[in-house]
Amino acid sequence: MSHTTKLFSNIVVSENIKQNVRCFFLRRFSVFSCFLSISPISLFKYYLSYLSVHHCECLIKQLMMTSWSRLQKITTVLFGAVGGASAYYFYTRKQETNTVFNSWTTNFQVSQCGKWDSNWDHRDPASLVKPLKKDSDTTDENKHNEKLEKATPKVIRHLILIRHGQYNQSGESDSKHYLTEIGRKQAAFTGDRLKALQINWDKMIKSTLLRAQETGSIISTSLPQVPVENCSLLEEGAPIPPEPPIGHWKPEYYFFQDGARIETAFRKYFHRALPEQTKDSYTLLVCHANVIRYFVCRALQFPPEAWLRISLNHASITWISILPSGRVLLRGLGDSGHIPPEYVTCR
Predict the structure, then answer these.
(1) Taking CA atoms, which of 25, 122, 298, 310 is between 20 and 30 Å from 90?
(2) Contacts of 246 (CB under 8 A, 6+ apart)
(3) Distance of CA 232 to the CA centre of its chain
(4) Which pairing describes strands 228-231 and 281-287: parallel, antiparallel, or unpaired?
(5) For residues 302 and 333, is the Cβ–Cβ distance under 8 A?
(6) Angle made by CA atoms 87, 90, 92, in degrees to the nearest 5
(7) Residue 283 in contact with residue 203, Cβ under 8 Å?
């Protein structure tokens, strides 16, 4: 004979009352048991194991003395509260185990080389405004926030990098590195493409080497209203020893000299908009493959040694956007789809 049956057999009440009490408790315990993943009968027995026969006698006598409807209300509220608390506990526990730390996955640890430096251009507003003192009051905080707001960019800078067209590689000096007939057609196709985009280009900046100068001049025939500037920092060179070490061997001083110059060009042209800039800007940079590939790696915070893993066709278009927050988007890399297949070259 079970413990529950023994308890009820020691109490002299009618079988009808026994059955009503058993059904009453089983219905109420079934509500709570669903949160504990055990059967109502097991929960009921577990509960009765802590009650003495005297307690059961008192409980049943109270049940017989209390109206059924009032007892239902009281126990419904009681077990509802317990059930609600249990549900909240299990829900919050589930939430803790599935906490989302970012927008694309859960509990993900970013590798050291994959972390983004939000102040890569040293123009983050927080780095431009003097920090608050420890004893600052509300007035000081308001002034500090106003300065941060004034130092925060509002618009996007778009940098469109264009590689020069095919040129005469047999020349011994820059004056002999003029564009081939194919290279001139490539530049014309790129100029037509830029015109078709119907963008108000702010300016064109050209490398001072002959092949980039000629490419920019041909593009200008399609964009005659765009101001033109020249910059020797954009000349071709060896930015950094590549990894893996492939290609032509060069003495170290080539990388030492060219790398510093190309890095200077990157810092000059790659940065978020100034706070006083009121509209998005579009700047054309006509330069060279090594320079563009290095710029892409640096802008995306990839290892700059990876620049030689990228291939660019002649007169191709690479589009990089720098957002007000400092985030960088690569919208297009080496796009040459505007050039007919028979005119596509890369060397």
Answers:
(1) 25
(2) 308
(3) 35
(4) unpaired
(5) no
(6) 105
(7) yes
Indicate the DSSP class of residue 333: E
- Integer CA distances (angstroms), 225 to 1, 17, 164, 273, in order: 102, 99, 20, 23
Q: Is the dihedral of CA 339, 232, 272, 257 positive or negative?
A: positive
| Predicted TM-score (pTM) of this structure | 0.69
CA distance 326 to 80: 52
* DSSP string for 231-278: EGGGS----S--SS--SS---HHHHHHHHHHHHHHHHHH-SPPPTT--
**Distance set, CA 97 to CA 89, 93, 101, 102 (Å):** 13, 7, 12, 15
How far apart are alpha carbons 240 and 263 in whole angstroms?
10
pLDDT digits (tens, 9 = 90+) for 43-92: 455 555 544 545 555 655 555 555 556 666 666 767 677 677 666 666 66
Residue identified by tokens 């963008």 is 199
pLDDT, tens digit, for every residue of 94-108?
A: 554 445 455 666 677
Sheet holding 157-163, edge to edge: 228-231, 203-207, 281-287, 157-163, 317-322, 328-335
Q: How many residues does the chain have?
A: 347
Choose among 58, 62, 86, 85: nearest CA to 74: 62
CA count, 13 A, side-chain hemisphere, 148: 12
3-state secondary structure of 117: coil
The closest of 185, 218, 194 to 341, measured between CA atoms, is 185
Percent of the chain that is helix, strand, coil (3-state, to 5)? 50, 10, 40
**What backbone phi and psi angles, to 5 degrees, belong to 191?**
-60, -40
- Residue 39 contacts residue 33 (beta carbons within 8 Å): yes
